[in-house]
């Protein structure tokens, strides 16, 4: 017999009754039933119930066991009584009567329990992640992640893509986040960067003549953490294709992503209709460039009904250039109680409140508008708003006003809150949308022009488009949104040096700087570059949605905490003086 096991803890069934077996695993829990001890023995594959009575040679050793001790047991497989069968376990028809027991790895007292679903502070869980990973839900999430990645690889190979690996130590690149810099020992004073994405390399792969590339790529960005974003590193499905337009990329990636969600989504419906929504339209209707389309609410501009009206706050606001009033319909939300709840939500968001109108049945049986805005605005404009939004008795509408860039994000969150509160959002399904026509440039806080998205994208209209107002230039850039999350970002690439130089010039990069920072790619484009494009899908975020988790750390094996610290390994750590001398670096004291 093998030194440690003849079977795993998930193998044994009624067909093994009477056999002598050897199992190894962790003590999940110990139960004393008056002279009969039961141990739930757990390994990667499952759980088996082990028992010993006072006649068993293993009884004395079993009585001393502590939870999470690793043991090896020998014993006989017995059928359970019919009344004691556990249908929730694959091994639930049997139990193993222990005849011998050896402790392979004793356990200290646990800082957090593995058995049960008790909530423990995340800092404790991350410091003892190896214990946290033993918990069933987290273990299942990590196994789901592995299966998803395997399925991605199979699907990509089946579509004719070839997997290549790109460098981890490279040069800095403007991808929209801070780089992690790596000092060079051989070249003092110079630094490598960990790649924010394999962007330049995958484009060079296309220039080199490899037609369809993909990899499961690690990416590194020094970012502020969020529930759906790691502050240090993440993995993405990275792909690139030659001789393609935007629709070709969509057609290539949709079967992969849709197939994943159908395979691993637990039977939740996956909408196969992926609409194309222009970026400006997404912000107007949903207040977000990653809208949750499970929520049917669409915002509308209603400024004309308030211009010069009796509702002075909005009328005066609209006298300022670039302002508008936006309406958020709330079907079935027509009560003062709900309006008060939404006002409380707005105040939590830092606003004084949200104006509203709701419609109810009047004493004479007609539909009447209620609320301070309806009273100040008057019957005719109020009715026009109701007609425009398609609302009726029992419905409501909420208003936000000002410059769109100042209130759009709050309006989007309000739309989500209204959809959830009123039960309008269709839970337990997946709805996708391509967001297209992103602006190439944006104005920074100091009034300068900078890239708003991927700097290597082809502007719509080519070189001619770059001779006008940069803020009007749209790029062949696209994101895929699902249930309020961005899953994919991509673009058709700028493969012509003259267009690339002009695009970077508008963002404040002179030609010499472009040559210095992206010399390899510029050089390659001068030797016959094909039209090409691609995208990258966030694997961590995909698995988070499939696992129905709200926090991305629940699907990453060894994540950092919110302060970008590895509490288990003690990173970041202080370098030794010898390390600093080798790199010719000096750490300045804190100011």
TrEMBL record:
| CDD domains reported for this sequence | EcAspRS_like_N
Domain of life, per the record?
Bacteria
E.C. no: 6.1.1.23
Q: Give the main localization category.
A: cytoplasm
Reactions catalysed, as given in the entry: tRNA(Asx) + L-aspartate + ATP = L-aspartyl-tRNA(Asx) + AMP + diphosphate
Site positions (Important for tRNA non-discrimination): 33
Residues binding L-aspartate are 175, 221, 453, 493
Residues given in the record as ATP binding sites: 221-223, 486, 538-541
Cell compartment(s), UniProt: Cytoplasm
Which InterPro entries does the record match to this protein?
A: Aa-tRNA-synt_II, aa-tRNA-synth_II, aa-tRNA-synth_II/BPL/LPL, Asp-tRNA-ligase_1, Asp-tRNA-ligase_1_N, Asp/Asn-tRNA-synth_IIb, GAD-like_sf, GAD_dom
Residue ranges of the region described as Aspartate: 199-202
Domain (Aminoacyl-transfer RNA synthetases class-II family profile): residue spans on this chain: 144-559
**Entry's Gene Ontology molecular function annotations:** aspartate-tRNA ligase activity
Which UniProt keywords are present, listed alphabetically?
Answer: Aminoacyl-tRNA synthetase, ATP-binding, Cytoplasm, Ligase, Nucleotide-binding, Protein biosynthesis
Q: How does it assemble?
A: Homodimer.
Cross-referenced NCBIfam families, in alphabetical order?
aspS_bact, PRK00476.1
Function field: Aspartyl-tRNA synthetase with relaxed tRNA specificity since it is able to aspartylate not only its cognate tRNA(Asp) but also tRNA(Asn). Reaction proceeds in two steps: L-aspartate is first activated by ATP to form Asp-AMP and then transferred to the acceptor end of tRNA(Asp/Asn).
What family, per the record? Belongs to the class-II aminoacyl-tRNA synthetase family. Type 1 subfamily.
- Protein name in UniProt: Aspartate--tRNA(Asp/Asn) ligase
Species name: Paracoccus aerius
């Amino acid at each position: 017999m093998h030194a440690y096991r003849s079977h795993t803890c998930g193998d044994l069934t009624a067909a093994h009754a009477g056999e002598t077996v050897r199992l190894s695993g962790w003590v999940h829990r110990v139960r004393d039933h008056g002279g009969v001890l039961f141990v739930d023995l757990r390994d990667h594959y499952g759980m088996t119930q082990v028992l010993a009575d006072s006649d068993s040679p293993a009884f004395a050793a079993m009585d001393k066991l502590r939870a999470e001790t690793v043991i090896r047991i020998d014993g006989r497989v017995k059928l359970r009584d019919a009344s004691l069968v556990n249908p929730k376990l694959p091994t639930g028809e049997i139990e193993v009567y222990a005849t011998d027991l050896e402790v392979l790895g004793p356990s200290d007292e646990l800082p957090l329990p593995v058995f049960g679903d008790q909530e423990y502070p995340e800092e404790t869980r991350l410091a003892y992640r190896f214990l946290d990973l033993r918990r069933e839900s987290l273990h299942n999430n990590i196994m789901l992640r592995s299966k998803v990645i395997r399925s991605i690889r199979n699907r990509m190979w089946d579509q004719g893509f070839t997997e290549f690996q790109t460098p981890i130590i490279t040069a800095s690149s403007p991808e929209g986040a801070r780089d992690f810099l790596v000092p060079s020992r051989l070249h003092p004073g110079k630094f490598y960067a960990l790649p924010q994405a394999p962007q330049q390399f995958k484009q060079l792969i296309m220039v080199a003549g490899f037609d369809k590339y993909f990899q499961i790529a690690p990416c590194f960005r020094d970012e502020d953490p969020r529930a759906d974003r790691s502050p240090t590193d993440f993995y993405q499905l990275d792909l690139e294709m030659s001789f393609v337009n935007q629709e070709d990329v969509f057609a290539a990636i949709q079967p992969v992503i849709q197939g994943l969600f159908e395979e691993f989504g637990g039977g939740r419906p996956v909408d196969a209709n992926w609409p194309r929504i222009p970026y400006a339209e997404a912000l107007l209707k949903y207040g977000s460039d990653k809208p949750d389309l499970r929520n049917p609410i669409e915002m509308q501009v209603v400024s004309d009904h308030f211009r010069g009206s009796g509702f002075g706050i909005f009328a005066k606001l609209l006298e300022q250039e670039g302002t508008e009033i936006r309406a958020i319909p709330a079907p079935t939300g027509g009560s003062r109680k709900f309006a008060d709840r939404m006002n409380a939500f707005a105040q939590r968001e830092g606003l004084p409140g949200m104006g509203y109108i709701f419609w109810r049945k009047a004493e004479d049986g007609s539909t009447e508008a209620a609320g301070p805005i309806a009273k100040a605005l008057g019957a005719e404009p109020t009715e026009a708003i109701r007609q425009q939004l398609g609302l009726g008795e029992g419905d409501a509408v909420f208003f936000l006003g000002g410059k769109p860039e100042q209130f759009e994000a709050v309006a989007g969150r309000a739309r989500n809150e209204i959809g959830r509160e009123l039960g309008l959002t269709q839970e337990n399904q997946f709805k996708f949308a391509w967001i297209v026509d992103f602006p190439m440039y944006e104005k920074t806080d100091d009034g300068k022009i900078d890239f708003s998205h991927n700097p290597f994208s082809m502007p719509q209209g080519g070189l001619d488009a770059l001779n006008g107002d940069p803020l009007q230039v749209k790029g062949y850039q696209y994101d895929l949104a699902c249930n309020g999350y961005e899953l994919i970002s991509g673009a058709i690439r700028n493969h012509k040096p003259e267009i690339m130089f002009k695009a970077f010039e508008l963002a404040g990069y002179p030609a010499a700087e472009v040559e210095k920072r992206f010399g390899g790619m510029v050089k390659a484009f001068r030797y016959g570059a094909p039209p090409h494009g691609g995208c990258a899908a966030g694997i961590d975020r995909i698995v988070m949605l499939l696992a129905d988790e709200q926090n991305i750390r629940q699907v990453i094996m060894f994540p950092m905490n919110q302060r970008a610290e590895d509490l288990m390994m003690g990173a970041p750590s202080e370098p030794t003086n010898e390390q600093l001398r080798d790199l010719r670096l000096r750490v300045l004291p804190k100011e």
